[in-house]
Amino acid sequence: MKNTTSLINAINYRRSVRVYDANKKIDSAIVKKCIQQATLAPNSSNMQLWEFHHITSKEILKNLAEACLGQSTATTATEMVVVVVRKDLWKQRTKTHINYLTKLFSVKPSNEYSKREKFALNYYKKIMPFAYGDFFGIYGYIKYAISWLTGIFRPTYRQLRKSDMRVVAHKSAGLAAQTFMLSMAAENYDTCPMEGFDSLRVKKALQLPTKSQVNMVISCGIRKPEGVYGERFRIPFESIYKHW
Fold first, then answer.
1. H-run or E-run covering 98
2. How confident is the model at residue 125, as a pLDDT?
3. Residue 171: closest CA among 34, 63, 15, 43
């Protein structure tokens, strides 16, 4: 019950803070711990196609504040965390999984692998390359056509285009970002997720590769009373809750 109460408290405590107190510092080691906890978030096929850039450098913070369009939550932030999608690393992640599973199951003749072990290995040897492999978006449409035809006869996975896989990777990164913010809230630290930013300038400030994608910039600090803009407002639950 205690853990449940702690989670509820963290959920209620978390607000998008727009102004931080410059006189109250946060412990970078705790922020790092919260990032480590964020890596435990659920993610598609456990591919972990993400990076977390923890910024404490005043110079980079200044550059990021400018890239975040001068928002007060950025200009007053003590630290920042930038969640980056690395869909381009899918081959590397796939190999890592195959190596891990091979060690876990031990090297042996193929006929000695159990059905579960074969499925796990084939998932990363065959299914992931099929899902993430692409050639200028063309292969994605071929896969989409195959899934559409298959779907006539039985349920099938359909989100296989390049744009679909981009959404998949960003959803996983978003889950990790939320986990990070709740972990920060549990430490009585404040955050604010920002989507209003110049992605090219953010990538330049962090020297990110061209194929990387910025999912979210999260400012961190300790709130000032005026940093929370009023009571939390949500659409009436009855209008968004559908029970079947």
1. helix 90-105
2. 97
3. 43
